[in-house]
């Protein structure tokens, strides 16, 4: 399966009391992993929700594979900081639940089961398939949430601060897992994060969304995997990104 080609042109979003996105032109290649950084309130989540088809733009367009996005799509999966697992269902049933969402193609029982098994294997949770969500650590719950997305065999993954609530060691594991999953599945991935290091460790490209609702800067992270925070080039980029982030915040102040 190849990743989706995602594009926005002139994407503008106004809420009743404020403007958020102002003519964002963006495109990503199939299988690319793009991180979006920016000050709190810049509109990162709004951008993701608009690309997901959950929010309609005020003007401009979002396209997936050259088709305008008019609502949620079966091949685009979204995950949040809260894993949102249903506490009364086992891990495997939670993962299978992703296949019952609206607009999912009908699958036979056998193929549903196979997809759940493959997704659990991808995130190394096969051994916990019968567990209840209450038995999972934070990292395992987030892996189950990722498996729920993967069972849908998405061509695009939209992740909104998925590791924001995890401790540092678990977060580092999840970052490695994410890179592995994206490379293995080929899903085009947009990751909203407030963590510059996370963006540098996982992304092919980093966008900085400013408080003015536009992409104010962009970096290609041309460092092969596995990446480690002490790699000099990443350290240099970190300083550049931090300065750009500070500039974008002081302009808004
Ligand atoms: P970020 O993810 O960068 O922190 P958000 O996209 O969550 O930013 O929010 C951008 C701004 O839009 C914030 O000021 C937020 O309060 C406002 N906002 C977000 N969602 C809505 C909504 N549904 N209705 C009105 N305002 C909203």
TrEMBL record:
Q: Where is the ABC transporter domain?
A: 6-237
The record's section on InterPro entries has: AAA+_ATPase (IPR003593), ABC_transporter-like_ATP-bd (IPR003439), ABC_transporter-like_CS (IPR017871), ABC_transporter_ATP-bind (IPR050166), P-loop_NTPase (IPR027417)
Pfam annotation, one family: ABC_tran
Give the UniProt keywords, A-Z.
Answer: ATP-binding, Cell inner membrane, Cell membrane, Membrane, Nucleotide-binding, Transport
Name the SUPFAM superfamilies on file: P-loop containing nucleoside triphosphate hydrolases (SSF52540)
Write down the PANTHER family for this protein, in alphabetical order. ALIPHATIC SULFONATES IMPORT ATP-BINDING PROTEIN SSUB 2, TAURINE IMPORT ATP-BINDING PROTEIN-RELATED
Spell out the family assignment given in the record's similarity comment: Belongs to the ABC transporter superfamily.
Q: What is this protein called?
A: ABC transporter ATP-binding protein
Species name: Paraburkholderia hospita
The taxonomy runs: Bacteria, Pseudomonadati, Pseudomonadota, Betaproteobacteria, Burkholderiales
